[in-house]
Amino acid sequence: MKPTVFIARRIPQLAMQLIAPVAEVRLHEGALPPTRTELLDGVKGCAGVLSLLSDRMDAEAFDAAGANLKVISNFAVGYNNIDVKEAKQRGIAVGNTPGVLTEATADIAVALLLAVARRLPEGWRAVEQLQWQSWEPLGWLGLDLAGKTLGIVGLGRIGSAVAQRLAGGWGMKTLYTARSAKPEFESQFDARHVELDELLRESDFVSLHVPLSDATRKLIGAPELAMMKSTAVLINSARGEVIDQVALYEALKANRIFGAGLDVCDPEPLPVNSPLRELSNCLIVPHIGSATVTARNAMAERSARNLIAGIRGEALPYAV
Ligand code: NAP
Ligand code: GLV
Question: Of 23, 116, 169, 178, which one is least surrounded by beta carbons within 10 A?
């Protein structure tokens, strides 16, 4: 008898083609993530779960699955939705999809940075609302990128890809944080490993790329925003919880920084009544960093291979 796996949402067909021959698939068909009850019911008796970043996989979910559970395969590189420590204690393997969404997510960070710097949403709104009356010598003035300083918070795969685009393309000087220095990157680009405070004080553009953890939750709060230049732009394509969103709203509202571009929010989706929606200097997109056909197909393949290896008791090809 084939083992049963729960797949928390319809993902690219490639994953189904790989999984269906080796496992009985229980698919959550809804357009929205499974509710907690649907998730806990769905995983019952499963050997594997293919989860999304919106599915909390913790002790309660592992208990609901039962003793057969061997693997959680996340359809994402970030795995803050999974209690990895608890999974490891129970001998449950955890996999993710690193690398294949790096370029797509770096593109979104750069797209947000350019759009906020050059005030594209405000310009588009003026066109849409029929308020564009002439070429404006003093209208919609934005920021240049060339020769400016870029601050990358978390120079890993995605952070480096963003820096390569902006240092290589626009000749931006790069400051970065990471747990360890990256001498190879420094020798290739005009880059320096610094403390977060220095990065925030010196940078014209700050882009966040750290994973969400206890160490990075609300890493950017009121004190950190106060350190930034009044002309600085803040980009977040990491996780919404890395920023204190109330403090960000206050800083943007008072024009203490120039603007922000967010691919991620806290919570997601952004509540209807979030005051961030009212701000003209805040551009928000719906967590679309990896939303390209190429990236999502590659994520489907990696997450399927992790799931299959896990239910067979083999080492995961992309283990957390
Ligand atoms: P990665 O290669 O592991 O890079 C993470 C970087 O953060 C590393 O440079 C790491 O330092 C640094 N770091 C980790 N903890 C830190 C801490 N406490 N203080 C300072 N730096 C710290 O990961 P990635 O593939 O670039 O992905 C990064 C994150 O982006 C993911 O975890 C996910 O949350 C998010 N993401 C979002 C989207 C989207 O759709 N918006 C798509 C993909 C990923 P070391 O290099 O020294 O270890
Ligand atoms: C997306 O946010 C991911 O972590 O893959």
Answer: 169
